[in-house]
What does this fold into?
Amino acid sequence: MIYSDFNGQKLSKLGFGCMRFVTDPETGEIDQAKVNAMFDLAIKEGVNYFDTAYPYLNGKSELAMAEALSRYPRDSYYIADKFPGHSLNKPIDNIALFHVSLRKCRADYFDFYLLHNITEWSVKYYESEEYHIIPDIVQMKNEGYIKNLGFSFHGGPKLLEEFLTKYEGMFDFVQIQLNYLDWTLQDAKKKYEIIVNHGLGVWVMEPCRGGKLAVLPEEESAKLRALHSADGTDAVPSDASYAFRFLQDLPGVKMVLSGMNEVSQVEDNLRTFRQEWPLTEEERKVLMDIAENLKKGVPCTACRYCCDGCPIGLNIPYLLECYNDYKFAQTMTPSMRIDALEDEKRPAACIGCGQCKHACPQGIDVPAVLAELAEMYEKGPHWGEMIEARSKLIDEDIS
It folds into this structure.
C-alpha cells in the first residue's frame, strides 16, 4: 500500500469512501455483511482511512461504517466525517448535531472533519452569523474533538482562492472533485494549484467521476487496452486503474477516496495502490485525449470578450462552465452554482441580443447555449428539493 505522510500521520493513499454501500431497494437498509467483507479486505491490505458524512445513505452510512470498524482497535484507522451546513434551511444546534455524528460513529473524536460541500450557493450559510457554523466547528477542534479540519468544495477557483485567503491558517486540507476529465472540464487543475499554494493537503473525491471513468465507452476503453497490449504485461489494467494512476502523479494529492460497493472493486483498487505506478507520457496523452472526447460542451476559454457588451451584465464564462458540466452529466453541482445567482443573472435572463455571439473568438452561439442551459436548469435536479427531507432527519436526531 502506498502511504502519505500528512502532519505526522501515515495515511493510506487509498481511502474508503462510505457513500455508495449496497442497500436494499425496498427498505434502504445497508448490506452490513458486504460492508464488513470489503473493510476486512481493505484493512488487511493496509487501508486505514474511512470517509463518511452525516447525510450519506439517509444517515445510515455512519452507522454501517462504525459497525464494520468496531472489530478493530480505534488507533488502527482514521475516521473522516462532515458537517452538513449545505443541508440546513434554518439555524440549528450545530454542536448537538456534531455530537450525534460522534455517537453514530462510536468515536470520541474525529481524525478528520470537513465542512460539507462549500459552493457559491452554500458559502453564505457557512459564513452566516445566525447559523454560526464555522465558529462552532472551530470550537470543536479547539476542544480536541477534531484533529484535522478541512472542507469539501464544489465551487469555482475564484471562490476557492477567496475562501482560503479569508480563513488562512484555519484549515489543514481541502477535498475537491479531481480526475483526468475534470482536470480541464471543472478547472480542477487550477483548484489543485490553489490548494497546494496555500500549503494544504489535497484530498480527492470522485476520482472516477461517479463510475463514468471506471467503465469507459468501448471505443475509448479500447485505446487503453491497446496501450496494455504494447507493454507486454499479463494482467489487463482496468479503466479505473488509469484514473487512479493519473492522481498518483500529483505530489500534492495526499488522499484518494473511492466509493467502493463490491469486493471486486476493492480488489482492483488495491492492485493499483499496492505500489507506485506512474503513468507513461503516452498513457497520459491518451487519457487527456479521452477526456476531450468525453466532453460535450462548448470550447469557452473565459476570455470574457462576451461580457464586455452584455447589456444585462451576465457572467457568461461562469454560466458556460455550468453548461459544460451539465452536458457531461445531470448532477447537482451546476444547479447549486446557478442557485447562487440572483434571478437577473441566471441563464433565463438572457435577452438574446447576440452581442456575445459576435464577440466570441471561439464562435460559440452564446444565446442558444444559454437558452439550453436555462431549460436544463429548470428541469433539475435542484438542491432545495432535498434540503427539506434532510432537515427533518436533522431535527429528529438533535431533538
Remarks:
- The chain has a mean pLDDT of 95.
- Strands lie at 3-6, 9-12, 14-17, 49-51, 78-83, 110-118, 146-153, 173-177, 201-205, 253-258.
